Amino acid sequence: IFSAHPQLIVKEFAAQMGLKPNILIAELMRMNVFATINDKIDFKTARGLAEKHGFHLEMERKPVEPPKPPPPPKPKKVAAEAEERPDELLPRPPVVTFMGHVDHGKTSLLDYIRKSKVAAGEAGGITQHIGAYMVTYNDKEITFIDTPGHAAFTQMRARGANLTDIVVLVVSAEEGVKPQTLEALDHARAAKVAIMVAINKIDLPGANVQRVMGELQKIGLQPEEYGGQTICCPVSAVTGAGVDHLLEMILLQAEIMELKAAPKKRAEGFVVEAKLEPGKGPVATVLVKSGTLKVGDAMVCGDYWGRIKALTNDRGVNVRTAGPSHAVQCLGLTAVPEAGARFEIVESDRVARSISEERLAARRLGQLQQTRRGVTLDDLLHKTDAGQAHELAVVLKCDVQGSVEAIRQSLAGIKSDKVTLNIVHAGVGNINTNDVLLAQASRAIIIGFHVAADEGVAKAAKREGVEIRFYNIIYELIDEVRMAMAGLLEPIVRENTIGQLEVKQIFELSKKGTVAGCIVRSGRITSKSRVRVRRQGEVVFQGALLSLKRFQNDAAEVREGQECGVRIENFSAFQPGDIIEAYEVQRIAQQL
């Protein structure tokens, strides 16, 4: 027997073998496959049935037609390449980001490492753009990304750009842990990257490294000196003391992480920054995550495309190629992509252009439909998908530090082995756009206690699909969070058997099909019951009741000792002596 499709209709398959459909249906039931005469069965099941009856089932091979000219390809996304083989993977340099409180010396430290004056040429010594730079230490390369703040870091992560392997938290030895230090730590933890600490400004008279280590211990970063696992390196961006040790620790951390990539495949990675330069056009700084980027490659970058005209490294030198973890400036794109946009190399300009056109069309449609949504508390209260992780993520903002600690302790008091509460960030002050970005990237809800929202936050929250809830009473806040956590749990489903019937006689009705004449042996059966048909102890069908009659009338319920007529949806192969079990499905909401 030959089949042109991977699925076969029961009626047609039976006709091909010269059998009656009910014979196949009965055999399928023994295989725990419940199909009607017009249902489809898969090829594997059909082949097993065919072999039982002395047939061999094969897929019909279509005659090879002369190739037609291919239509212009318009894929929505670049087709995924074959998985990287382990023998193709080679070690790659680590990608490191400096984060921390303002004026704790992030750029000055990077400036000393790179031996060039970045901070001196910027307004007020504050980093105004995102840069990516490579340094070589002990014949090993390290890529550094210097960000203007946590907002950019989180905004890029919200777009799916996992640029960083290691975050170095820069803390002043004089000032210690500050509010923005905590914020930077929360953002790094939310990104789930390795965290190290550089205790900067040890050359100042008021520096106290031990005090800073004690403060780090309080915020959950246990220094190695105190028996923890967080690498802490005292350094000075002015004198250079401890910088070599910091670089050694970065390389050691990278070695432990076993960072690898396949350099021989097509390049892919992310945009670190992009701008429009006079005389050059769109210029994008890209970080290669895997593969090798070459001049002349056809690139799809975010929603745009281009052919690479030139590659320039961080020292301004033109290069022909860039391998994994290398950052280069790229010329040749048709427009300026967003920071954090993903880029891929494709086989030709034609493919790149068609992909770009589809993405731009999809973006315009998405803007019209406004389909982008984050997560809301109401979603969580009704969320029962087994595939979702049972974790409630929260960004908490309060009026004073005392309220933060009180609410933290109260939320920690909600004990549950089934759902975890993850406070992504807790801080003092009004809710700002940075909180919205963090919540969107972490799929969290924002809870405000005795605070307001800054200007523009409502628009940002609506755009990103993030829900913000404000509370003035702590008990209401705790109760709603507890309800949201309980809403993440699937209800417990229980089946309660309510009665058993025995089939005494079969009635074939021309219009209504087969009716089983039964007597209720125990319990009862209702018109809304689910039923299970057992034959010689084995279940042959399970489904819904189509009708329940007592004499000629519909019955809502039939009790023990009474006779009734039963019709079951999608089942008619009754036999005298069959046992019909009636049961009810009960859904019980779980408690924490």
Descriptive notes:
This protein has 592 residues and is α+β, with helices and mostly antiparallel strands. The longest helix is centred in the middle third of the chain and has 21 residues, at 349-369. The protein is elongated. The two termini are 56 Å apart.
Strands of the widest sheet, in order across it, are 7-8-6-9-10-11
In this structure, how is the largest beta sheet organized? 6 strands, mixed
- Kindly state the mean pLDDT as a whole number? 81
Q: How would you sum up the global shape?
A: elongated
How many β-strand runs? 33
Assembly type of the shown chains? single chain
Poorly predicted regions: 62-67, 69-77, 116-130, 383-389
Going by helix content, strand content and strand pairing, the class is alpha+beta
Report the end-to-end length measured between terminal Cα atoms: 56 Å
**Percent of residues in β-strands:** 25-35%
Helix share bin: 25-40%
> Over all CA atoms, what is the radius of gyration?
33 Å
Number of helices: 14
